[in-house]
Design a protein that fits this description.
With about 280 residues, the chain is of the alpha+beta class. Strands 3-4-2-1-7 form a five-stranded mixed sheet, sandwiched between helices. A hairpin with a 2-residue loop joins β3 and β4. The radius of gyration is 21 Å and the shape is elongated. The termini are far apart. About 40% of the residues are buried.
C-alpha cells in the first residue's frame, strides 16, 4: 500500500498539469471500508482543456513507461476517463471529474433534482448526484485553489430535498414489481431477475438517502443499506436472497415477487416515518 506521504507526492505532481485543479482520494479507501486488495482511487478534478499529453508524461514518470491515460470522455459520459496504473506495486485508478459538472451535480442535489444515466459497468445507472457524493466523501490531497475542499465541506451535509426526492422514487420499485408479475406467469426468470435487481437497488438508495448517506456506486450498496439503523429487519440478507434465487417456474417467481413486495413496503414505511 502506498504511504500517505507517497500519495500526497503523487497528487502534488498531478495537480501541476495544466487543467488539473485538484486531486483527491476516493472510493472505499476514502470511506474507510476498503480491504487489503482494494485499489487506490484518485479523483482528478479538472477544467477543460485538460492537457492529456502533459498528464501522460507525468503518469509515465510516476508509474513507468507503459502507463497511459485516456482523453476526457473516452470511458463514457459519466465515468469520463483516466488511467489504470501500477505505482510502487499498488493498483491506482485515476478517474477524471469535470469540476463544473461536479458543481452542477451539487446544485441539482440541493434542489432535489436527479436522474439515472446509462453507463457501462453501472447496471442500475449512474445517479447524477454521484459526483456530489464523491466529493463529499473524498479526502482532499492537493487543491491549490481550495475550490474542491469547499465543495467537500458543503456536500458533507446531505440535502433534505434530495432525501425526499430519492425516497419518493420508491414508487418505481413497487411499479417494477407489478410489471414483473406479468412476466412471472410465462416463467420469464430473466425479466423478473432484472426487475428484482432494480427494485432492490431503489430500496437501498432510499434507505441511504433517508439516513443522509451518499451512494456513488451499486457495488456494496445493498449490504451497506442493511447495516443502517432504520433498515427493515434483515434487509441485506433478504434482498440478497431474492436476487440469488429468483425461481425457474411461475409459482416460484410469484413467491419471490411476493417477498420482494414485502421488502419494498417495509422500506417505504421506514423511509416515510417522521417525514
Amino acid at each position: 500500500m502506498l504511504s500517505d506521504a507517497r500519495l500526497r507526492d503523487v497528487a502534488e505532481r498531478l495537480v501541476e498539469v495544466p487543467g488539473v485543479r485538484a486531486v483527491v482520494l476516493g472510493g472505499s479507501r476514502a470511506r474507510g471500508d476498503h480491504t487489503a486488495e482494494s485499489d487506490v482511487d484518485l479523483g482528478l478534478y479538472y477544467r477543460p482543456p485538460l492537457d492529456v499529453d502533459a498528464l501522460g508524461a507525468v503518469v509515465r514518470e510516476i508509474a513507468g513507461p507503459d502507463a497511459r491515460v485516456t482523453a476526457p470522455g473516452e470511458w463514457g459520459p459519466w465515468v469520463d476517463g483516466g488511467g489504470w496504473l501500477q505505482v510502487d506495486g499498488t493498483a491506482v485508478d485515476v478517474l477524471y471529474r469535470d469540476l463544473d459538472r461536479v458543481r452542477r451535480s451539487w446544485q441539482e442535489a440541493q434542489d432535489g433534482r436527479f436522474a439515472w444515466h446509462a453507463q457501462a459497468g453501472h447496471p442500475l445507472g449512474v445517479p447524477s448526484f454521484a459526483y456530489a457524493g464523491e466529493v463529499a466523501v473524498a479526502v482532499v490531497l492537493a487543491d491549490p485553489s481550495g475550490e474542491v475542499a469547499a465543495l467537500h465541506d458543503a456536500a458533507s451535509a446531505y440535502p433534505r430535498a434530495l432525501r425526499d426526492a430519492v425516497v419518493a422514487r420508491l414508487w418505481e420499485a413497487a411499479f417494477t414489481l407489478d410489471v414483473a408479475a406479468k412476466a412471472a406467469g410465462r416463467g420469464d426468470s430473466a425479466y423478473v431477475a432484472g426487475c428484482l435487481f432494480r427494485a432492490v437497488l431503489l430500496c437501498a438508495h432510499a434507505l441511504h438517502s433517508h439516513a443522509g448517506r451518499w451512494v456513488t456506486n451499486e457495488k456494496g450498496a445493498v449490504a451497506a443499506a442493511g447495516r443502517l439503523p432504520d433498515a427493515p429487519r434483515d434487509f441485506g440478507v433478504r434482498a440478497q436472497a431474492l436476487c440469488a434465487a429468483v425461481g425457474a417456474d411461475p409459482d416460484a417467481l410469484r413467491a419471490t415477487l411476493s417477498a420482494a413486495r414485502d421488502l419494498v413496503d417495509e422500506t417505504a414505511t421506514v423511509c416515510t416515518e417522521g417525514s
